[in-house]
# Entry
Amino acid sequence: MLDIKFIRENADAVKKNCLDRNIKCDVDRLLELDEKKRQIALEMEKLSAEKNKLNDLMKSGPENREALIEKGKAVKEDLDKLTPELETVSDEYKNLLYKIPNMHSEDTPIGPDESGNKVIRKVGEIPKFDFKPKEHWELGIELDIIDSVRGAKVSGSRFNYLKGDLVLLEFSLMQFAFSVLTNEEVLKEIAEKNNLKVSTKPFVPILPPVMIRPDVMNRMARLDSEEMYSLERDNLNLIGSAEHTLGAMYADEILDPKQFPIRMVGFSTAFRREAGSYNKDMKGILRVHQFDKLEMESFTEPDKALDEQNFIVAIQEYLIGSLGVPYQIVAICTGDMGKPDVRQIDIETWMPGQNKYRETNTSDLIGDFQARRLNTRFRSADGKLEYVHMNDATAFSQRPLIAIIENYQQSDGSIKIPEVLKKFMPMPMDVIRKK
# Structure
């Protein structure tokens, strides 16, 4: 959430930001409640002080004891009336404050939806085939490595069985990412190549919980009843990304700045309802309810957060680029970016079967927006408590599998395995063929 002091001092900018991001927020009502809340709190503080003063007078055994008792009762009644009023005002105030999105960065494009996203650069040549390239789901059926029919029979639409060599390919993809993210020498090479003066401290591998309490998810500013699967009996939600439980890991803690940057890479299964995507990408594994994902999460001091995101994007480029597939870097506009984001950069990878670029990686600079709600802080050199700044980003999900299948398909229906992944396969393999 935003600092209320910032909202008071920059009300017009906050209102414009809400408009730019297509999010309805009643900033004027919030400020009205803020003022009312402060007035009630001040009045209660005065009444409490008067109550304490009366209690002190009572201890001295005054002659007008009865009068003091009556006055004390009156003060208590006034306090009792104000307490529920403060609670009511505070609840509405909190609800409105939580609806206000983060302020976007200066270099974020202004736009209503994905049509306003801006391509920063393209990398790699679009492959040319001497045959009509197929979509991944077609090859998945022919090679018996994706079974959507039985997935739907058992669990419903947008569920699949990944099988055989595709499973081995997925885990080789994840192992490759781990080999990069945990290797300081490789991270140093990435930083130097991109002229980034950042720490090259490795990421710590994490297997996080895949269930999260709704109140914690709300503090992460990611609670979405339309998108999330809920286990009402147990008061838990299934996560849509490892970011959700990684980001909340240090809630209500004061971190030692000597630990910064705190970098984690979490592997988990992710669950999403895909609300609002009716009849879109129904075939294959592009847009599904359950998928595996390797997610980066980072905690830094405020002045290091932007450099950290740039470093993370450079890492993402290294990972995707190593697969030998064409991709483009995209700046996400105000109307398409996530509510907690200051700045969002995506990587879209070329999918020949679909004849278009599709998103495979996202990087979100969050700033202190989540940390304020989570109360995750650190003590600066001057002893002042400050909120940490957070970044989260995709290392790999299952979507790069689509890019590999479609870009590396051969005329005989087989799929070549990218050179960088071969050593992570559990057996010597050059291609995926029909068994």
User: Anything to note?
Assistant: The CA atoms of residues 185 and 284 lie 37 Å apart. The mean pLDDT is 94. The chain is about 40% helix and 20% strand.
